[in-house]
Amino acid sequence: MQKAHEIIFAGFGGQGILSMGQIIAYAAMIEEKEVSWMPSYGPEMRGGTANCIVIVSPDRISSPIISRFDSAIVLNQPSLDKFEHELKPGGLLLFEQSSIINLPTRSDIEILSIPANEEAQKLGKKQVANMVLLGAFLQRKPIVNIENILRALKKVLPERHHHLIPLNEQALLIGKKLANNYVASGNKLEETVS
């Protein structure tokens, strides 16, 4: 039986943190699951801290306020420092490779390092780095279907940006592939041979 999955998305404002959470939440609603999306951000438009908690559950959610998570997707060092120890044992810590200097130290969680910024640059649009990470997350934790992520994008992205949905889909698929290629080995991150 499926249980609730509790996720924290965290980074700087402008990195698409809140959008990632919204996209997961909308996709879960399309699948008629129970959802909670709770954003938290500073007054700065860009560069301040931002995070959001998303809960996806087959049953009613008792409270959107939680302090322990099943998964954490982090895009900067301060977020890693803050949320690494808030993950439940056996949880997934996924982070953007180029933005982390001090690697995670826990051995009781799955750690996944993804070069999302690098892949987004290859696609010619650095703003899709969050979608690379989202694809990697969904490869490891398929809590919603990719088809519904694409449907959710139409709700989250303003209509003037709908022409970018194919690029976002490409970024998602790259992330899914990368999730199988990068693993943690002790405190060192290695690329597996595919």
Describe the structure.
The protein has 194 residues and is of the alpha/beta class. It has a single domain (5-191), classed as 3-Layer(aba) Sandwich (Pyruvate-ferredoxin Oxidoreductase, domain 3), CATH 3.40.920.10. The chain has helices at 17-30, 77-83, 116-122, 129-140, 146-156, 165-179; strands at 5-12, 34-41, 49-57, 69-74, 87-96, 110-114, 182-185, 188-191. The longest helix is centred in the last third of the chain and has 15 residues, at 165-179.
β-strand amount = 25-35%
The structural domain count equals: 1
What is the second-level CATH architecture?
Answer: 3-Layer(aba) Sandwich
Q: Can you count the beta strands? A: 8
Main beta sheet: strand number and arrangement? 6 strands, mixed
| Overall residue-averaged pLDDT value | 88
What do we call the CATH homologous superfamily?
A: Pyruvate-ferredoxin oxidoreductase, PFOR, domain III
